[in-house]
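Predict structure. Input: Transcriptional regulator, 387 residues.
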Amino acid sequence: MQSIDFPLAQDIVQRTMHIIPFSVNVIDARGVILASGDPQRVGDLHPGAQLALARRASVEIGTADMARLPGTRAGINLPLAVRGEICGVLGLTGEPDDVRQFGELVRAMAEMMLEQARLVSELQHEKRYREEFVFQLVYRTGISDASMQAWAARLALDLRVPRAMFVLEIPDAGEGPGERLDQVLTQLQQVQSDLSARWPALLTAVVSPGELVLLDAFPASGPQQARAAQARQRLLELHQVAQQALTPPATLSMGVALPGLDGATASYESAKQTARVGRARDGAQATFSYLELSLPVLLSGLQAGWQAEQLRQTLARLQAHDRKSGTLMRTLAAWFRHHSHPMATARALHIHRNTLDYRLQKIAELTGLDLDDTDDRLLLYVALQLN
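Output follows.
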């Protein structure tokens, strides 16, 4: 049943008394006056309203009726209904013949305000329901898969469709005075509102201070280059909307697109790792895509352990020799970036082809690897990704 709270009752009284010259009372479903043009009546029981609630019909009380209904005043009492359910009473104080002409007008206005309040409440409940679902995908606090699947069905979410997590992060949001954190949270909520207004199907949730997560459908198959281009475009669209509401700089990363509940959780983890790898490579960049950083993101799990140590040893002598200038490391990175094409690499580095050949020979000597051998070349590339 729709309930009437004090602020809403007060708003109804103030608005209706602007258009009629009589005192107005708003009474709840128990017959208690919530708001009134006569403030001294707030909190009192209203016998006329209780009678209207019992009869589920309008009740008029004239001066002659007041003697047999102690505590009443002359006026009319009109039941308030929202979607067929009576939730209270609207009372107009005055002789029935004088106030009757205003009754239906003010009741229609009051019921419209009640309906609007109910719609807002339902929208807020739906927003919280959607947001909590995304939160559970990120943290998986123990809710069973069956319950999560039922939750997804309630949201009309087809779990067979691949989806990608996007993570909007504001660095160091929790540091500094509390006012800054409040400001960040307010701005993230505005970003949520703006994104939902533009893309209603987008699921979003603020999952930690300074972190907003978005869940969006995205293809998991097809040509890699086409999907990478689509990811760049989607990141740009989302980031442009977010930046309009944000004061501090923020980064937006996209994870791998996967179906299912576990797929969404994995996508979040991959988006976070994509952001870490992307920021380490280019701190000035604002958007990062797993599709463009998939190999270094996948290899980032090798940052510790004996395997990582062995891979780092591959470049140890090269880095020691190259410590001051960094020329050979930059040359190696450019060579891989240009798919081992000598002319393209030389042009990018603004050097002669012979100079490039000399540097590559020096790299081979220092690493002890044959750059023409596929396995050696792959080993060197992986070691460079972990550098």
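Residues 6-119 form a domain with the Beta-Lactamase fold (CATH 3.30.450.40).
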